[in-house]
TrEMBL record, chain A:
<keyword id="KW-1133">Transmembrane helix</keyword>
<keyword id="KW-1003">Cell membrane</keyword>
<dbReference type="GO" id="GO:0008324">
    <property type="term" value="F:monoatomic cation transmembrane transporter activity"/>
</dbReference>
<dbReference type="Pfam" id="PF01899">
    <property type="entry name" value="MNHE"/>
</dbReference>
<comment type="similarity">
    <text>Belongs to the CPA3 antiporters (TC 2.A.63) subunit E family.</text>
</comment>
<dbReference type="GO" id="GO:0005886">
    <property type="term" value="C:plasma membrane"/>
</dbReference>
<keyword id="KW-0472">Membrane</keyword>
<protein>
    <submittedName>
        <fullName>Na+/H+ antiporter subunit E</fullName>
    </submittedName>
</protein>
<dbReference type="InterPro" id="IPR002758">
    <property type="entry name" value="Cation_antiport_E"/>
</dbReference>
TrEMBL record, chain B:
<dbReference type="InterPro" id="IPR005133">
    <property type="entry name" value="PhaG_MnhG_YufB"/>
</dbReference>
<keyword id="KW-0812">Transmembrane</keyword>
<dbReference type="GO" id="GO:0015385">
    <property type="term" value="F:sodium:proton antiporter activity"/>
</dbReference>
<feature type="transmembrane region" description="Helical">
    <location>
        <begin position="74"/>
        <end position="94"/>
    </location>
</feature>
<protein>
    <submittedName>
        <fullName>Potassium:proton antiporter</fullName>
    </submittedName>
</protein>
<keyword id="KW-1133">Transmembrane helix</keyword>
<keyword id="KW-0472">Membrane</keyword>
<feature type="transmembrane region" description="Helical">
    <location>
        <begin position="48"/>
        <end position="68"/>
    </location>
</feature>
<dbReference type="Pfam" id="PF03334">
    <property type="entry name" value="PhaG_MnhG_YufB"/>
</dbReference>
């Protein structure tokens, strides 16, 4: 099973992508999509990526909703900063956050979330110390950002990936 | 837009609102590129277009073609997924290149590396 299908989740995701791209669930596209997904997931197994079992679908949905809401809110916040030129008493600056998350998949996910959200930018991760260097556009209180990232994202990511 | 007259008024209004809002947010994000003052602050601005701006236009497109073709047209979701996964790579590449350069030039506004001994000038590689 694992030799034939090394990454079952990736296989399903690629098949879903193929069907969406072709906008069809006809048997022909199912077979063709399955072949493409199978070959692609074999190719990926060459890279010997760290296998991370994804757990807690409930946490994934919760995280996805949280990220959507946060992206919406920070879009408005950064839009206001650009238009009015005033920051809420803050300044743009760097800060470090100690992370407890260690899994590669979880860190990659956190990097995407933080960078895709306007207002925060993932700068550097120090794997030895487990410290993340972050650039924040509206830095009022470092404590606020640390708790936000650790409570809102890191806890859920650790539930999903570790 | 030859198909536009077939769109019922409610859908046309909704689609117009979504597309104009998405375009406006993208424009604000682009304006941020010259409104903000430092390189690191500027990197934040284009993410407006990559997130809510793209989102608005894509949802508008999904509503428009779902109503026109009387079936769910959902493959725009793939555009959103690929943009969300790929933009951070470019942004991190740009900002880390800037950080690397600022650290080499010992710019005081940038936090120094945690490992000064592995900094590029003394790095044998």
């Amino acid at each position: 099973m694992t030799r034939l299908l090394p990454h079952p989740l990736l296989f399903l995701a690629l098949l879903a992508m193929w069907l969406l791209l072709n906008q069809s669930v006809s048997p022909g596209h199912l077979v063709l999509g399955a072949i493409v997904a199978l070959v692609a997931s074999w190719t990926l197994s060459v890279f010997r990526m760290e296998r991370s079992g994804l757990r807690r679908p409930q946490a994934m949905v919760q995280l996805a909703l949280r990220v959507l809401v946060d992206i919406f809110r920070s879009n408005l916040a950064v839009g206001t900063i650009i238009l009015t030129g005033t920051r809420g008493g803050g300044r743009a600056g760097f800060m470090t956050i100690p992370l407890d998350l260690r899994s590669q998949g979880g860190l990659a996910m956190l990097a995407i979330i933080l960078t895709a959200t306007p207002g925060t930018l993932w700068m550097n991760y120090d794997a030895a110390k487990g410290e993340l260097l972050l650039h924040v556009l509206d830095l009022v209180d470092e404590e606020h950002w640390t708790t936000l990232i650790k409570q809102r994202y890191e806890r859920l990511l650790m539930e999903i990936f570790e | 837009m030859t198909a536009a007259p077939d769109l019922p008024a409610w859908a046309a209004l909704l689609v117009a609102f979504l597309v104009v809002a998405g375009a406006a947010i993208t424009l604000i994000g682009s304006a941020g590129l010259w409104r903000l003052d430092s390189f690191y602050a500027r990197v934040h601005a284009p993410t407006l277009g990559a997130t809510l701006g793209t989102g608005g236009i894509l949802v508008g497109s999904m509503v428009c073609f779902s109503v026109l073709e009387s079936r769910f047209v959902l493959h725009e979701i793939l555009i959103a997924v690929f943009i969300t996964v790929t933009t951070p790579i470019t942004l991190m590449l740009l900002s880390r290149a800037a950080l690397y350069r600022d650290r080499v030039e010992e710019n005081p506004e940038v936090p120094a590396s945690a490992f000064p001994e592995t900094e590029p000038p003394s790095d044998p590689r």
